[in-house]
Amino acid sequence: MSQRPPVKAIGVISGTSMDGIDVSIVETDGDTVVRPGPGRTFSYPDDLRKTLQALIAEPARAQSEPLEELEQAVTDAHIDAVRRFMAEARIQAKDVSLIGFHGQTVYHRPEARFTRQLGLGSRVAEALGIDTVYRFRHADVASGGEGAPFVPLYHRALASELSQPIMILNLGGVGNVTYIDGDVVIAFDTGPASALLDDFVSRRRGLGFDENGQLAASGTADQTLVAAFMGNPFFDRPAPKSLDRQDFHARAKGVEALSDHDGAATLAEFTVQSVIASLRHVPRAPQRWLVTGGGRRNGHFMRRLHEELGVAVDSVEAVGWDGDFLEAQAFGYLAVRSTLGLPLSLPTTTGVPHPMPGGELHRAA
Ligand SMILES: Nc1ncnc2c1ncn2[C@@H]1O[C@H](COP(=O)(O)OP(=O)(O)OP(=O)(O)O)[C@@H](O)[C@H]1O
Ligand SMILES: CC(=O)N[C@H]1[C@@H]2OC[C@@H](O2)[C@@H](O)[C@@H]1O[C@H](C)C(=O)O
């Protein structure tokens, strides 16, 4: 057991879907003690979200433009979100030891040892008067790791009492899994989760996402196209491996010839099959899957996953976790680990050569 007293850390992240800034709080010793608190999601201002969406659709810009003004605006939106969260949850700055500030991923190319999260840690620390850790993924990528996923060590801490092996599946814009069996933690990105479907229903119907997977459920998947998508060598590549949100977009163009219903069904089935393919890279088939992220609200995903896997597939709420805020809490947990010099990632979660500390601390003035 750890001897360090637990502290309170706020975690804040905007995921690849850019559907909002998630803020939560966790009380933790950075090791086995984890007491998650409440969370809230705050939308980006419309113009900022549109600017970011346009940016990630142009990877060359996202990679190399300085983006100073945009980075300040992204940072200020996060500061505002944390302020509102603290006011609404009646949390005082003096009671919070740390902020774990993930920022907004706009470009991720680990093979080029490059990942970019917009966000200025010093600005957050100064504005809120709380020590802030940011740049979580950089040391990992610099040492040859995938730089993602980073939530697995938090999953491990949360799952210590559950029957194992167990699989935690995050269905965000991109999908990722954490396989936990005692000390064995294997994690990797699985493929697209909602990103392709979101963009498809936005183009075809002007929708933000396919509510409960209704459109996908009403269509028929084109199995030839799904098989072609699944022919991507990514799915056979051993773990660890990670993805950029846009990685499958160019190759998924075949759905353009399909109706709205069948196109949505085909993209949803691609997501489902890419999740199933994750079983190629774990030692034993888990008897239970716990699903987190916005995609757990897509009933079509959940139903198809259960049919294909033939084992229990539940939302993480079934074990008392909050699937809207696991990622935010994870970055609070990781911020505490960062200040203690503990690893944030492992050879089996990101492919780093050895357990890797990371993050940069900015002290409040
Ligand atoms: N009611 C719902 N029905 C269907 N899908 C939903 C629903 N609510 C959310 N989603 C899906 O979940 C997505 C958002 O998930 P989440 O917030 O976990 O993503 P993220 O954290 O931004 O992404 P990532 O984990 O890749 O960084 C939405 O874009 C949408 O596709
Ligand atoms: C580079 C980046 O931001 N990756 C995200 C993305 O969204 C889901 C998946 O791809 C995961 O690898 C990661 O996010 C979570 C928070 C993680 O690091 O675990």
Automatic annotation (TrEMBL):
Pathway assigned in UniProt: Amino-sugar metabolism; 1,6-anhydro-N-acetylmuramate degradation; Cell wall biogenesis; peptidoglycan recycling
UniProt keyword list: ATP-binding, Carbohydrate metabolism, Kinase, Nucleotide-binding, Transferase
Residues forming coiled coils: none
Keyword Cytoplasm belongs to the record: no
Keyword Nucleotide-binding: yes
Role according to the record: Catalyzes the specific phosphorylation of 1,6-anhydro-N-acetylmuramic acid (anhMurNAc) with the simultaneous cleavage of the 1,6-anhydro ring, generating MurNAc-6-P. Is required for the utilization of anhMurNAc either imported from the medium or derived from its own cell wall murein, and thus plays a role in cell wall recycling.
Name this polypeptide is given: Anhydro-N-acetylmuramic acid kinase
Higher taxonomy: Bacteria, Pseudomonadati, Pseudomonadota, Alphaproteobacteria, Hyphomicrobiales
